[in-house]
Amino acid sequence: AQSVTQPDIHITVSEGASLELRCNYSYGATPYLFWYVQSPGQGLQLLLKYFSGDTLVQGIKGFEAEFKRSQSSFNLRKPSVHWSDAAEYFCAVGSPITQGGSEKLVFGKGTKLTVNP
Amino acid sequence: DSGVTQTPKHLITATGQRVTLRCSPRSGDLSVYWYQQSLDQGLQFLIQYYNGEERAKGNILERFSAQQFPDLHSELNLSSLELGDSALYFCASSVDIYYEQYFGPGTRLTVT
Questions:
Q1: What pLDDT score was predicted for residue A41?
Q2: What DSSP letter does each residue of A62-76 carry, written as one string?
């Protein structure tokens, strides 16, 4: 079964510093990968997605992520963090039905980001 | 704003009761998904509907059921509620099966 691991439960960075949130997945075939962000009391907003092609994907709000098949990773990065980026970030893997998987997203447990002024 | 709407925003009810959560997908989206978010279980997939038909089931309890109507809105019915059912329930929609999912703001259910 697919699984997603986000090793860091909580990360604190200073405003203006760079950010990298880690995500490792377990999936037998080519995965569909996503990063979502959830602000307190809000729903999940899609930051970016990887389906195929270029392994470096750009998203909204200045975020990017790199798919590394050899490491089964899809880490999220931002060169300079803003105070408004404080939120919880979820990595997810989807399974295309053509490969026999179910049609759902499997989420990691999330990484809570705190931004210090 | 994702374009997915959910009502109500909050729901407080007693154990043993039944509630209905409603979701309207983004215009043009045929697929609707329901997820439960709790502190201990995280985000868990419950069920998916595509153009009115059930397509996939996840960790959905037998006390829970869902449906998608001809106008593509969906309802999640939770019955014989227990304290442990207290959670955030999200609806998501996608234009088709293999596309990214857009989430609604959620319904926070509190069972007392």
A1: 80
A2: G-EEEEEGGGTEEEE
